[in-house]
Design brief:
Elements lengths: L1 H12 L6 E3 L4 E6 L2 H4 L5 E8 L6 E7 L15 E7 L11 E6 L2 H7 L4 E8 L8 E8 L1
Antiparallel strand pairs: 1-8, 2-7, 3-6, 3-8, 4-5, 4-7
Length: about 140
């Protein structure tokens, strides 16, 4: 019993994981490519515990290995991975966490076969809700 209390206290005192916070400018970050992903034929970018106010829609484009992507970067670019859209919902007054999964295009999957890391740039398509979007967990699987 005492060891479980000590473990809970130790876990509770650890710093929270780094989050990706997107306001109205593009945000670039890198992910380690797990070994099992390097051999996969289908890879997804999983975004969990995404928090934003729901009084306005949130839409952002995602580009892989393109740190200079911005709102003018065309979605026809070979580095375009897809987009995430979260509609406005006036019934939800408080930010509620959401989860999103994006299957990556074949070109990105092939690029991961020899990569240890992969960068992603999230580009807001329009003004985001007040406070922006916070994504607590992002991983490849």
């Amino acid at each position: 019993m005492i060891w479980s209390i000590a473990l809970m206290l130790a876990l509770g005192s650890s710093p929270p994981p780094a989050a990706v916070v997107m306001k109205d400018e593009p945000v670039m970050f890198s992910l380690n490519v797990p070994e099992q992903v390097r051999h996969a034929k289908v890879v997804s970018l999983r975004m969990e515990t995404v928090v934003m106010k729901r009084n306005a829609a949130a839409v952002w484009n995602i580009f892989w290995n393109m740190p200079n992507a911005n709102a003018q970067t065309p979605v026809t670019d070979e580095h375009f991975a897809g987009y995430i859209a979260s509609p406005a919902n006036s019934a939800l007054r408080d930010p509620k966490p959401a989860n999103f999964v994006l299957q990556l295009p074949e070109a990105a999957v092939v690029a991961m076969h020899d990569a240890e890391t992969m960068s992603f740039t999230f580009v807001p398509v329009r003004k985001l809700p007040e406070g922006g979007v916070t994504i607590w967990t992002i991983r490849l699987e």
